[in-house]
Amino acid sequence: MTNHLFHGLMQKGLAAPERPFAVLPDGAVTSYGDLDARSARFAAVLKEAGVVPGDRVAVQVDKSIEALELYLATVRAGAAFLPLNTGYTPAEIDYFLTDATPRVFVCDPKAEATLAPIAEKAGAVLMTLGKAGSSGEAAGTLRARAEAADADFEPVDRGPDDLAAILYTSGTTGRSKGAMLSHANLLSNAQVLRETWAFTEDDVLLHALPIFHTHGLFVATNTTLVAGGSLIFLAKFDLDTVFAELPKATSMMGVPTFYTRMLTDDRLNREATAHMRLFTSGSAPLLADTHVAFEQRTGQRILERYGMTETNMNTSNPYDGERRAGTVGFPLEGTELRIVGKEDGKSVADGEIGVIEVRGPNVFQGYWNMPEKTAAEFREDGFFITGDLGMIDADGYVVIVGRDKDLVISGGYNVYPKEIEQIIDELPGVVESAVIGVPHPDFGEGVVGVVVAKEKLEEAAILAPLHDQLAKYKQPKRILFVDELPRNTMGKVQKNLLRDAYSDLFS
Ligand code: MCA
Ligand code: AMP
Question: pTM for the complete prediction?
């Protein structure tokens, strides 16, 4: 039987099961054969728990090889993988489980007691998955059951259009939307990135990204899998570990904060990076200054690319050829990209700014349970409206100049102001609020709440109630009080004026 994504990703690995798939800093190796056997066992456990093709398996666990095995197991069992940011609070998890109604929810053993009632309410079977090397209760129920399970689980038949994953992305209306990604969406993008970036079985990718988003899970992991390469798998981005492991790597993928942090460290120099084949950056704009500074220090030109949860990767600077700072390069093979006027939706001339729209095998199937939102974000001819503003320069490079959507990107994580404003506006003593992003030396943009209060309030009066409701990265780094918010003649809050007024807040 054929499982489009599983077999596509594992083709090289299954042919060479002894080859390493992932190496941990402590030297522990997971081979492709291990990955195959363990994902089979996990798939068998999922099936025993009642998972049938089309079901969702939601997962909020610390980064580990087992979590990747669970991703492949879910695909193998014919279900859709739904990874959740480990920073999400129980209140946020409640929303996702209620909306997605997964058959199974897997969490960390330490979160089990808190999340059990939420899983029960959503009708999900709760299992736990602990850190590698842990034993007993800390290892979790999933691993314990897997030990007794069959390692010959036959991958469930799934075609290119079947659902492989749902990734939630916050929305400008404040409610998160589940982007439905098919087997073909994920496999085609991994294959095109392997070709574009020349990944082979000799590649060793330094993996320091989280694995609950597109970048760390699909761009980094799937591309390595289709190439039959291997990962140096780090728990998180930490400068000491990155510099210790860099000599063994051939390539690294990061968000701009990785590169600005590396630039603050004297260990970054030509010698430390001379053996590296490729550094890529994405998820947020890489400042041209960072690109230039990195090249001056190392001789390496970072390759910037552009994507979205809904579309996977859309464009990339060339592997061979000029990697132009401040641009995201050219549309990937098979992806069409056009720039249209915001009002009339008609293509604009090259060099003019408009909204970026894309179409291709990489573009998702729609939002889970939200047909109206899906319809609103697609044109009749199948182009997806990204909400990013861009232009095409004289040489065909795509330049992202801003966003038509109200979005802040902090350290590569997306923060939708509406979600935070809705909570702040409900707090006692608050008249209204506007959440903005302003330049931040470490995170690129820092989240700031601008609040109009009825009475004198302290920052803590606004920040404290957010702790239980919002993941840490969404919580404003500062709250500023003003007498009124600037508005245009239509009554719309002029966030650009606020951004200008507070542009130096973190400098
Ligand atoms: C951590 N904090 C943050 C962030 N990360 N605050 C705002 N934005 C963040 N991104 C908080 C911590 O909770 C802590 O708060 C304080 O900031 C300092 O934490 P620190 O130890 O410096 O953070 P860290 O653990 O080192 O994390 C920073 C990081 C991480 C390494 C940049 O955020 C990260 O791995 N980002 C990658 C995100 C990513 O993978 N995005 C891809 C999305 P306190 O001190 O108060 O406790 S996929 C995507 O966008 C698409 C589709 C694409 O194109 O790729
Ligand atoms: P996400 O919600 O995580 O899917 O984030 C997608 C958004 O990240 C895009 O719509 C862009 O606004 C932004 N993004 C991703 N890569 C880049 C890049 N290289 N430059 C600028 N913005 C980017």
Answer: 0.96
